[in-house]
Design a protein that fits this description.
269 residues; alpha+beta; 2 domains; disordered N terminus; disordered C terminus
Length: 269
């Protein structure tokens, strides 16, 4: 009996030490998890500068979160969030399902790059959908218990809000110019709650679907076809001027100003 008491005491102490380590290293743990799962889910590079979080209150922030573009896109990133506010229920950190009371993103900067095969946002959405499908997380398909074990802990996000964002629109025919539009605000409630928790892939898919819808709504007001025509007209003018013997430096400088004026006239940027 004495031996079992000693063993039980040792296990209890080990448990306390494990919880202490978890609490004191919570920030770096979250940073590594965001970079690891974020990169795997989006199939792009995800970088996070730091995570600051209180082990007692669960309040904190992710700072310097950046999602790079998939291959074949020229702009540096798709999403840049200077700060993402968090409120975690710390009592659930050692449970199979972690409850995040709130995720708040203010002033995000999103780059929508239109390429020959579609946009970078479409490409990332396709990557996320493929990741979720590969784990058998779609409704009615695959071994969900196996998929859940592969992804680790489940999540419940009680409130997700995105406010005051902007979308920078880029396309090859704009010759490096961009158009900026306001991103509609987003608010989601109880992500994963009805299922008792969702995998990081499922959570990402639901959040990104809402974000993709908001980006599409913002960009839909832009007449990209008209912008392309204006730029093509400027390019045609450059060719004519050069054929007439115009100074290349002067012609190209004027063309750059013309493109900028055309874009500004159409979209106010």
């Amino acid at each position: 009996m004495k031996r079992f008491v000693i063993v039980g005491g040792v296990l209890a102490v080990m448990g306390i030490v494990a919880v202490f380590i978890l609490m004191t290293q919570l920030g770096p743990i979250i940073t590594r998890a965001v970079e690891h799962f974020g990169s795997a889910i989006t199939q792009t590079r995800v970088d996070l500068e730091e995570t600051e979080i209180s082990a007692s209150s669960g309040q904190g922030a992710l700072r310097g979160l950046r999602v790079s573009n998939p291959e074949n896109f020229k702009t540096e990133s798709a999403f840049e969030f200077s700060e993402v506010g968090l409120m975690i229920d710390v009592s659930t950190l050692t449970q199979p399902t972690v409850v995040v009371k709130e995720v708040l993103i203010e002033g995000p900067e999103i780059t929508y790059e239109l390429g020959a095969g579609g946009s970078n946002i479409d490409a990332i959405k396709k990557n996320i959908d493929g990741y979720v499908k590969s784990l058998g997380l779609q409704e009615g398909k695959g071994d969900k218990e196996k998929a859940a074990a592969k992804e680790g802990k489940k999540l419940i996000i009680e409130k997700f809000s995105l406010r005051d964002g902007k979308v920078n629109v880029s396309a090859a025919f704009l010759e490096g110019k961009t158009m900026t539009v306001r991103l509609p605000n987003i608010e989601l409630r109880d992500i994963g709650k009805t299922k008792g928790g969702a995998s990081p892939g499922e959570v990402s898919k639901q959040m990104f679907a809402a974000l993709n819808q908001a980006v599409s709504k913002a960009v839909s007001g832009l007449d990209l076809g008209e912008a392309k025509k204006l730029v093509e007209d400027v390019a045609s003018g450059v060719k004519d001027e050069l054929e007439k013997g115009g100074d290349p430096k002067d012609v190209l400088e004027k063309a750059g100003k013309d493109v900028g004026a055309a874009v500004k006239g159409l979209f106010g940027n």
